[in-house]
Specification:
Number of helices: 4
Oligomer: single chain
Largest sheet: 3 strands, antiparallel
Amino acid sequence: MSRGESRQYWSAQLVEYWDSGFSIQEYCELKDLPFENTKRWIRVFEKERGVTEKSVPAAVEVPEPPRLEMVEVKPSPARPSRSGYSGIRLKAAGVEVLLDRDFDGPSLSVLLSVLGVR
């Protein structure tokens, strides 16, 4: 990988990291990235742009995320509903998510980020 390609790769990885809400350690484990290299690239971008750890470098363009459409789905009579099922089903990035009445909003937010729809 050339120096320019490496820089572009890490720029894309770090934009995803900053949007994820994960710690550096969690993100590295999730994406199977070397922890020390990730920290080094964060320092490189922070130094160049004078930004804080959670900021996105100014030279990096963040693409518009796909629009997520939420619709209420009533349970079909052929399939009995679970007692805690809220009737909300999300389809994002080829994954279907059924939400319980007491679903955890922050966890849903992280899941949507990992799926790349947020």
